[in-house]
Amino acid sequence: LNLLTSVMTGRGLKPGAQRDDPPNSRLFVVTSRSITEDELRDRFSDFGDIQGVWVVKDKQTKESKGIAYVKFARSSQACLAMEEMHGKVLMDGTKPIKVFIAQSRSSATHRDVEDEQLTRIFVMIPKSFSEEDLKNTFKEYGDIEYCVIIKNKFTGESKGLGYVRYYKPSEAALAIELCDKAYRAILAEPRTKASSTEEYKSSPTDPGIPVPSTADPGSFPVVDYRSGDFTRCLMMSTRAGLTQEQIFALFDIIPGMEYCELQRDSYGMSKGHALIRYSNLGSAVYAKEKLNGFEYPPGNRLVVNFIDDGEDRRMATQFVAAQMMAAVWNGPSTSQVSFSSVSTVPRIQTDVNLPPLKKLAPPDSKAKERLFVVFSPSPLPPDVLEDVFCRFGSLIEVHLVPGRKVGYMKYADKQCADEAMAALHGRVVNGVKMKVMLADPPREESHKRPRTY
């Protein structure tokens, strides 16, 4: 890999192809050793202007190692190619390819289609913008998962900064490329622990662009509530598979929430933790008191604790917190929150007109059709999937692939499977977007479970 620059230069690639210019415009492809550069160029050229293709070869034998790089002129083209080509078969008899956004040569990992760092952008906006204004401005570039406006911790006024999270990397890249330059849109850095004196730092390439201080909220130490430390930040833990949307709706009941994000691992799976920040101390204290130990969904007890956000809050702040709570909730008549709206949230939340529930087919039924489902940002629980997919009839079983964001739905009747695919492809259920496709038929001669990637 260290010889990449010199080799690509020797092959006469276009200027800029030797490096990641613009960022995230180079693909890392794991493919069959029989696939040539010309075949890769032919299949990937549908997604944009290709500046270069390079197949990694053994120094001694000159044979392909089954690894290649494809360089596009724009990052949105590379991201779209990754989304569409990952898992595709290029030639009969070869394995499905794997496509990632290539990292720098000093990095040992590559970004995949579900990587959060490719879907969240950071923008400068007028201070008069509401979250609805922010969403309306950027929705033309793709489906938005959520928008957040950064506010002053004391006044609650907008700082003229915000985040927009898309469902797809190509949508985020397109927004950066096509939006008005006044927004100074860039990919948001992951949050890491920052100093208490500086919330934002300047971009190394343009000092005029504020960039969020890099931070991993999961690295913050949990503060023992009994010690009397209060902050505006909370960490919620749950054993149930709650979605970003559900957590947001739950904590948004308390006024003043300015940030809410579900923590995910490298596979995009929920860690069972979420970081929540409020614009004032009173709201955070109230949220902690009301939601710590609250059961949602029924039987799942939430654990909510303060976490250190860099501000030292001692026992003396308890009196201040009480005063702030009184101001937030405007007296004793509104000092209690009714959670009936939370507890009565329907188990299945979707814009699909779902048919009534139907019984599962007998487990020993012969499968006539299988559906392959890709989830974004993370898989739905098996019981929810069973609830949704059984409504079209003849569902035999649901199978989720461990460590992956994919699953299979097995049907005893082909027509039922086709109806489920037509109704659910591209739809959002409980905040999770699903791609529903026909699965490849399993090999008849093998009794082993077919590979899923």
TrEMBL record:
The terms under GO molecular function for this entry are: RNA binding
One of the Pfam families matching this protein, by short name: RRM_1
UniProt domain RRM: residue ranges: 25-104, 119-193, 231-309, 369-441
Q: Which UniProt keywords apply?
A: RNA-binding
Record flagged with keyword RNA-binding: yes
State the protein's name. RRM domain-containing protein
Which residue ranges are recorded for the region named Disordered? Answer: 194-213
Query: What is the organism field in this record?
Result: Monopterus albus
Gene3D superfamilies associated with the record: 3.30.70.330
